Amino acid sequence: MTILVVEVHDACDLMPKDGHGSASPYVEVDFAEQRQRTQTKPQELNPIWNEKLVFNVRNPRDLPNKTIEVVVYNDRKGGHHKNFLGCVRISGISVPLLSDSEAIDPQRYPLDKRGPFSHVKGDIALKIYAAHDGSHPPTPPPPTNAGNIETEATPVFQENKTTMLQEDVIDDHEKKKKKKNKDKEVRTFHTIGTATAAPAAAPAPPVSTGFGFQPQVMKEKAPIVETRTDFARAGPPTAMNMQMPRQNPEFLLVETSPPVAARMRYRGWDKMASTYDLVEQMHYLYVSVVKARDLPVMDVSGSLDPYVEVKLGNYKGKTKYLEKNQSPVWMQIFAFAKDRLQSNLLEVTVKDKDFGKDDFVGRVFFDLSEVPLRVPPDSPLAPQWYILEDKKGIKTRGEIMLAVWMGTQADESFPEAWHSDAHDISHTNLSNTRSKVYFSPKLYYLRVHVIEAQDLVPSDRGRMPDVYVKVQLGNQLRVTKPSQMRTINPIWNDELIFVASEPFEDFIIVTVEDRIGQGKDEILGRVILSVRDVPTRLEAHKLPDPRWLNLLRPSFIEEGDKKKDKFSSKILLCLCLDAGYHVLDESTHFSSDLQPSSKHLRKQNIGILELGILSARNLLPLKGKDGRTTDAYCVSKYGNKWVRTRTILDTLNPRWNEQYTWDVYDPCTVITIGVFDNCHINGSKEDARDQRIGKVRIRLSTLETDRIYTHYYPLLVLTHSGLKKHGELHLALRFTCTAWVNMLAHYGKPLLPKMHYYHPISVRHIDWLRHQAMQIVAARLARSEPPLRREAVEYMLDVDYHMWSLRRSKANVHRMMSMLSGVTAVCKWFNDICYWRNPITTCLVHVLFFILVCYPELILSTIFLYLCVIGLWNYRFRPRHPPHMDTRLSQADNAHPDELDEEFDTFPASRPSDIVRMRYDRMRSVAGRVQTVVGDLASQGERAQALLSWRDPRATAIFILFSLIGAVLIYVTLFQVVAVLVGLYVLRHPRFRSRMPSVPVNFFKRLPSRADMLL
User: Whole-model pTM?
Assistant: First the structure.
């Protein structure tokens, strides 16, 4: 006799159903009118059962036509109902025999919905196979002291079985059905020992070469991808569901409760400044070395090269030395972290720089127990004069002005101070480790309308010139189309758009050239204009009046005023700076600024965004070859404001505790935070590039106002070798709304300024202009001191987001499938109603249908009320955490190595020709599938057009006759009667249905399309 074995291993991330954030799940398995269940795991959202359920297979030939239904329920002991937690339906055709099951590992199946209104999440690990009775593998032995379950522990097993039957909550219909089939059902429980067992790892998913789902029968063995962890596995292709498995828990957010002032509400807390309540308070010992006077001469030559050495335990900081100066002025501040203080005595020593050993000039000691505490908004501590002492403690000549105090990171001296965690940094590289705030340059769109030219003078007067215009602004170069008519008075009427930035230091160079031959052009004239002289357009009214400008030959431009030309050619140009646009330097999908360029057109802010960059943990050591770990710093961008934290040297768990604030003008914007490894410290090369560790994006519209979010965000980076986690970033975030009415009104306003809609720019030009804007921003920020490196700016702005990626294309397809899953669920629910799968529900739908037919004015109100109820119901399941990078959605954890190598390849391709040819063939295969789908959609549309186009005269005549008869019948019949007849026909009982397609479907499929006209 053949049996079916279902091993229920574990489930993960189930939906809480008991009202206390948990659930008591158990599993019911239905197969061929046999139902068995597992034990109940109380108060557990990640239960582990490790139980084996055995079913009888009466006819093995019918097994491929059977369906195994696995349902997870929440056991409500105090009531008479059970809560649905998810189900999985598995076709019997995918069940292997015993000989095949030896190499089969448990598969993870995402839990599916029962209907369109179910709230389900999580997945379940199952192992299903068929075997002959007595030949299935024996149950693994439990722990040594457990004994044999089926022989020695029979009484205990029977007691457990009785208890579980009492806990099984089923409805009356199921109880009656159970009594009828009591003699037929065989309930057998085989418990697998869990002392040393753990959920088995699932096999790696096959990699698809296109966009479709994997077929049930694979003709070729798919390549196997070794993922980084065992959790990130997909279910088998024969699972009857479309949901994606949950992502690796290692890549999820971790909520924290750091001791920040905003969370503790200042109770028992030394209150800091209000702008620093999202970070942990860190105390520092500040030493301000201002200047000195009357220092003694130490050299034989009568000179003194003084510098100051500040020493606290093993930490030692030095100022710059000043040559031949007995009254030096340093104006330098040192900061020592209080939690790393190794001494109670601070020593400030003045020394003389010498070729050999530096000479001792004098020193001052401070007892840390007597150092005052200063917290802003207190005024800065006034420095004082201290008389220097020699090594014996005797007062000597010379005085030094110092200020010593205990403060926090809220101190004004914190950003510019020398920090003890950067004690081995030279003065030349110290600025590269400090925290700074940057602002992007203000960008404008420069519109150059090239209209026409007159009286051009080519060198060869016997031929008509082939003229075009070349316009250059900085590094941006655009060329017009050649004139349609070859004449000395050409007309182009072409419009070119550039990106200009303040201050307007660049020049517009307009050159008229004649294309004489292949690769040979002649300059007919040139005009140079300053961007400062171009008028500004704020509103969408007409462009400024065009101007005629003289074209000068290059020889006249070089000679300047020495030679005047009596006659010159002219060109008609219309130039303006469009200040009503927003110049995009980020992708529109996650832009942080949507304001127009002109400040006169900008609206008032609606709120404040506060970001606390607390710390990071478990960072990847990126300088292992140099004997170091990681020198990490953070960069945050929102709007035109960039912030950079200080660099924490040589640690994998840096603590920044820095807080920044931005004004918010639109809630539908995104803030980006990136972490980098500083490669510009001592001994670094000038051309070294800061390495990326990871970044986080947070959309403000997903945040609740006035709520503090504190989480560890995983830092995920996609590399040539696959997805890697480089650590976790600890952030505190708070969005405060200051104008509720304005914020709500923003949801009804257009996303971009109105100039984008009155005079839209084509998508092709937008992509090119966005690239130019990013280059300008990166070049401008790289000129700051300290510079914000180009590689960091490009990574924050996603400079290569527009490049082709098969992985990203797959992700977009899965996004579309996920979006359509709701429609699919509704269609499936309606199909079940039409086929009377649940008679009670179908009858209720009939009643509702008759009510709406009799009272049609209730249709719209019912729909809107239904949407309102669904929204209120979903409020219980709203997201509690900010969004973060989703590896499953990005198709990053199972991407094929060749796909990643193609994604990171340069443009144009730099790989060998055979690899490029293989990728081209793969792209042709993918494009062929897309082409087929697009062709099918076009065929359906053409068939609809063929109804009245007389391409098939008989079909059109039939449709016209049917339309005429239908119009007459509907005119003489009440609308309610027609609606009732149509509804009853659609909802008719299955015994009145046929498996053959209906007449309208057959008629529509016979209509001609234009596919047969394609070559």
Answer: 0.71
